[in-house]
């Protein structure tokens, strides 16, 4: 499979990678997407993932770019802090602020580490 390979780091760690272009043909930007660590994945499993990535890339997607965007997304705990700072603290008394803080924390329990894109209405309803 074209673009699929193994990258060996300076300390000897091996990871499966996929090299591809984003943005159309030779003029597109080259990306190296990390599929996973050798040992956690077998070569056949990594190749299967690379084939799925190839289908996504052929349809115009960017698997490595999606991973980067997910990492850049703020966590629910960060968004919760911003909300409490800008809306609750400014618009309420300290007592109401404490009640709202308890409601928000209770409603988002277990979701603080998730990113906004990973949380759906069913998760907080």
What does the overall shape look like?
elongated
How much helicity do the residues have? 40-55%
H/E element sequence:
EEEHHHHH
Number of strands: 3
Record the strand order, biggest sheet.
Answer: 1-2-3
Oligomer: single chain
User: Which structural category do the helix and sheet elements fall into?
Assistant: alpha+beta
| Percent strand | 15-25%
Please, what is the average pLDDT?
A: 79
User: How many DSSP H or I helices?
Assistant: 5
* Rg calc: 21 Å
CA-CA gap between termini: 45 Å
> What ranges have pLDDT less than 50 throughout 5 or more consecutive residues?
none
| Main sheet summary | 3 strands, antiparallel
Give the gist of this structure.
The chain contains five helices and three strands; from the N terminus they run E-E-E-H-H-H-H-H.
How do the strands and helices of this protein lay out in sequence?
Blueprint lengths: L3 E5 L5 E9 L6 E9 L5 H16 L4 H10 L3 H16 L2 H14 L13 H4 L1
Helix pairs in contact: 3-4
Q: What does this protein structure show overall?
A:
The protein has 125 residues and is of the alpha+beta class. It is 48% helix and 18% strand. It contains 5 helices and 3 strands. It has helices at residues 43-58, 63-72, 76-91, 94-107, 121-124, and strands at residues 4-8, 14-22, 29-37. A 3-stranded antiparallel beta sheet has the order 1-2-3. α3 packs antiparallel against α4 (94-107). The longest helix is centred in the middle third of the chain and has 16 residues, at 43-58.
